[in-house]
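4.2 Preliminary Data

To establish feasibility before requesting continued support, the project team ran the inverse folding procedure on a target of 470 residues. The structure was first converted into the token representation described in Section 3, and no sequence information of any kind was made available to the design step. The complete token record follows.
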């Protein structure tokens, strides 16, 4: 049983893809694994899925698998000699094409960019290392002034500032990758470079109910349309890498907090990602600033924090996970951590789920309950309980493997696959057994049990029982 409530999502890559490494990462703290479809083949990802499911079966612990789509990554074309030098104040020409670049001329095979860019808009290259400001747009060529100079190499990434591109968040590659990921029965699909709610609606047409959707917020247009996007997604990721390139640096912490609050108000899991323990790609310990960054995300109410290159290609993947586990645990052991949640009331709907979830938090606090055990088919009631941040373990009881794995990404939730009860007495009996075996409860401990009667029907949560273990 994890000592902490917030979850750890780790990226699979060359440093962690071996089955024994995935098992080690899970043992030291990973609750969910991210498969980055920007890299690796379908065969590589299929092997990772099989290895993760084997860890699930061997440990008896549900693990969430997130398939992260590449999205429409903009890139410059190719240069004669592989690179050019941009000097400060120089005027350069950007032209529509895949190659033929040379000094003063930058090829970009993205007609949608030429369709909307206006004077004053800016382009950043290579993760923000270089920047130009558009001076004029002739349709298939643009002139720009170099504001941040440097060496620009073949196929480096491009970020657009000040304009929304008329393009879908799903490329042809993404659609193929999505179909493949669904065939592997992944639990979550992460959408990259979402700009509007329509991008999520389009993805839902492909995904249906085969997986849940995570929207990665990494563009200013997504921040502007956040409320509408959150209505259509199942979870959200604060993807601070590209977001920090396209927004002013000082705006990123503010936006992070806004996204966490908005997502939690709706009861949708929120993940904070990118550069969390970045120095541990090479170093055996993080910087103090990185440790504070992880703790800040936890204090703000994030459901999960993510490791990217630290576990994908880093030299110390298991150590990075173990240190992140320690930082989260330390933050959650601070009394101020719980005071924050008590001081910020949430909006509630007039539903049985919300009535039960509010009661769970209050009863758990007053009676010092050891755990709350919620029966669920879809995970929705347990997710609403998680939103309330009760000060005890949340056990999600479900007969469905898929639901259990999806819940592994939710704050404080320990998913358990069990049989559906046929009557009230069986419901209590199963809950008692699981509380003792999985939640560390013992004789005299108080537990809460939430369920829907009649049993086996989604959306009928209407019962809450306080029980004292023998």
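Position-by-position output of the design step:
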């Amino acid at each position: 049983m994890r000592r902490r409530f917030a979850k750890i999502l780790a990226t699979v890559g060359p440093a962690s893809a071996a089955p024994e490494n995935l098992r080690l990462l899970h043992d030291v703290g990973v609750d969910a694994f991210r498969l980055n479809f920007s890299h690796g083949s379908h065969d590589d990802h299929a092997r990772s899925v099989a290895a993760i499911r084997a860890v699930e079966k061997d440990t008896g612990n549900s693990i969430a698998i997130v398939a992260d789509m590449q999205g429409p990554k903009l890139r410059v074309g190719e240069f004669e000699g592989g690179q050019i030098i941009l000097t400060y104040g120089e005027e350069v020409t950007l032209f529509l094409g895949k190659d033929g670049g040379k000094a003063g001329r930058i090829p970009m095979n993205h007609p949608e960019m030429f369709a909307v860019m206006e004077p004053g808009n800016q382009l950043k290259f290579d993760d923000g290392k270089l920047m130009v400001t558009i001076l004029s747009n002739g349709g298939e060529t643009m002139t720009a002034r170099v504001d941040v100079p440097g060496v620009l190499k073949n196929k480096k990434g491009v970020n657009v500032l000040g304009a929304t591109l008329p393009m879908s968040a799903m490329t042809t590659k993404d659609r193929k990758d999505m179909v493949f990921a669904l065939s592997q029965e992944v639990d979550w699909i992460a959408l990259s470079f979402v700009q509007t709610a329509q991008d999520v609606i389009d993805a839902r047409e492909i995904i249906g109910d085969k997986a849940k959707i995570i929207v990665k917020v990494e563009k200013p247009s997504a921040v502007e349309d956040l409320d509408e996007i959150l209505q259509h997604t199942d979870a959200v990721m604060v993807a601070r890498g590209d977001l920090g390139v396209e927004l002013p640096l000082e705006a990123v912490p503010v936006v992070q907090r806004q996204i966490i609050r908005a997502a939690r108000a709706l009861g949708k899991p929120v993940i904070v990602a990118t550069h969390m323990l970045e120095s541990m790609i090479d170093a055996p310990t993080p910087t103090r600033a990185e440790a504070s960054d992880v703790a800040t995300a936890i204090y703000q109410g994030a459901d999960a924090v993510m490791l990217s290159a630290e576990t994908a290609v880093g030299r110390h993947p298991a150590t990075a996970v173990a240190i992140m586990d320690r930082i989260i645990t330390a933050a959650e052991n601070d009394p101020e951590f719980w005071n924050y949640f008590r001081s910020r009331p949430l909006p509630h709907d007039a539903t049985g789920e919300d009535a039960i979830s509010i009661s769970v938090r209050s009863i758990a606090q007053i009676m010092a309950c050891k755990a709350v055990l919620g029966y669920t088919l879809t995970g929705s009631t347990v997710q609403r309980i998680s939103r309330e941040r009760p000060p005890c373990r949340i056990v999600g009881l479900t007969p469905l493997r898929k639901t259990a794995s999806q819940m592994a990404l939710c704050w404080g939730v320990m998913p358990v696959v069990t049989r559906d009860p046929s009557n009230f007495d069986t419901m209590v009996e199963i809950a008692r057994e699981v509380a003792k075996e999985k939640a560390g409860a013992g004789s005299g401990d108080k537990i809460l049990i939430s369920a829907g009667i009649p049993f086996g029907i989604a959306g009928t949560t209407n019962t809450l029982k306080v029980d004292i273990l023998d």
